[in-house]
From TrEMBL:
Species this protein is from: Rhizobium setariae
Family per similarity comment: Belongs to the ALAD family.
Gene behind the chain: hemB
UniProt protein name: Delta-aminolevulinic acid dehydratase
GO biological process, one term: heme biosynthetic process
Pathway entry: Porphyrin-containing compound metabolism; protoporphyrin-IX biosynthesis; coproporphyrinogen-III from 5-aminolevulinate: step 1/4
Origin organism lineage: Bacteria, Pseudomonadati, Pseudomonadota, Alphaproteobacteria, Hyphomicrobiales
Amino acid sequence: MTDKTHLVDEITGHRRMRRNRKADWSRRLIQENHLTVDDLIWPIFLVEGTGIVEPIPAMPGVNRMSIDKAVEAAREAADLGIPALATFPNVDLALRDETGSQALVANNLINKATTAIKKAGLNIGVITDVALDPFTSHGHDGILRDGIIVNDETVDAIARAAVMQADAGADIIAPSDMMDGRIGAIRRALDSAGHQDVGIMSYATKFASAHYGPYREAISTSGLLKGDKKTYYIDPANGTEAIRDAALDVEEGADMLMVKPGLPYLDICWRIKEAFGLPVYAYQVSGEYTMVKAAAANGWIDGERVMMEQLLCFKRAGCDGILTYFAMDVARKLAKG
């Protein structure tokens, strides 16, 4: 018998990685991570009024919706199997002030939307954000006093707002403000109000990123923001500090942890999952979404393939799910098989 051993066999010790890649069926058989509809959380934007579906120029394919249209969208998402929505209000500018007091109005836009979605009896969760930036006249996530975001007064306000959001039917409170101590304060406030079953998805590591621009257009804060948010968001250079932030949120009672933005911080996703073992989510933020959309619109990339690849990367990095504006597109694609 002729020996057909090749030099490559000797170099590799007869271990060839391509054997498992040679056919579609074998590649599917060994695939380590999978993206399913159960991994998706769909962020939506709300406006007052009725019958409104208003395109957001900086986010092609994303709209601001009045509550009636948001309920219709929630029904479609539930029918596709998407587990949860994350709601963000675009509040009338006349209602915004220095302290974000509209956040403490029980029937404000975000709470009315939650109640309406829940009243529709849909099999979908509602995740609400208690940060004050949609409600402040200066665009910051907290109360501004003499040019400083005051931590403790902000925490008092968002803890009260969290209870109102839970009263309206929110299933999970997701505080994105990055104030110190807010997770513990919200947990105590919720429990004191009898909302022990309402979870907290902490924006555990929210970075002072340049990827948020289109989102700020969506909630009309881009022209309001005075200064930047570096005194409370995390420096993009700091990984160890991010883990310490997450650890404090775990100690204070967070049920789930989020990393925001997503793709530039896959290392943080992995480190947090390995360190704490809690459910971890990435927020594929507006800038990430828009970059894919813009490049695809110019024919520079295959937008659908890039969309699916990036979301799969979050799974590989240890994420249990992803907040993504692509959620409906992905859910439809997955439904087709």
